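Onboarding guide, step 5: your first structure request.
Type a short instruction followed by the sequence, for example:

Predict the 3D structure of this protein.
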Amino acid sequence: MDEAKKEGGRARLENDTFTKRNELGGNVVQRDEHSKSSKLENLDRASKDVARRRIQGELEIYLSSTTQERQEVLKKIDKEILEAIKDRYGEYLPEERLKDAYGHPVKFQGHKEYLDGVKEKYPFLKLPKDKIITGDLRPEGPYVDYEAESFSKTIAHERIHQLRSHELRKHLGSKLDEGFTEYLAREVTGSKLLIDEGNGYPKEQGIAELIKERVGDEVMREAYFKGNVEKLRSSLDAQLGNGTTDKVAVLTRLEMYNQAVKVLRRDL
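The system replies with structure tokens like these:
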């Protein structure tokens, strides 16, 4: 969040009191009055992120004044992203969880309507003046502010949260959970295309990637989606000593990122 970039650096911010009770969370971006990207540019980026193609007809519909038509375009983008997640991580996703995700699509709201809903759902949530929340996961499904910058990656982030096992967060903490979520969201939407869009969790994502390099994609994905955290712990501890996984989790939770990185880079 502290390294969010000018064009809409993105981060998720969750209030622990609410997440422990309802697994709710929020996606936060940096305010920037100088960034005035048009809706056309936003949707063009979204189409490149997911489908790698430009859909002129849908872009024109999106820019129309009809809210219903705009919602239909957004639903298509949400469906494309969910399909991309299924294609990439399907073997790790329990069928019932995937079915539930299809039954609870993203709800898209304009900026004012979305923020009003956030205030109602998170009455005690306080954000710095230069941050705004742009997406969150509620029991009824993800909500996204479609007027926010780079909303396609926000959709992917919230959808991946929706499909996760809660075991990783339970054992390794919310910050590492966010780091893995951001890594997976960028992997599925195309990290190279998103590199200039900012990253609200650069340090957490970096630590998650170092863990992945140590244990491998399969072990990391099993821990995140299936909840097999012990397999990840065994692999990491076998390489770096008993208790390493818990040590890295604690250091990350305390925002002692450099120390966590130092532990994970030992002997590399």
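Each response can be followed by summary notes, for example: Residues 1-25, 29-40, 46-59, 191-198 have pLDDT under 50 and may be disordered.
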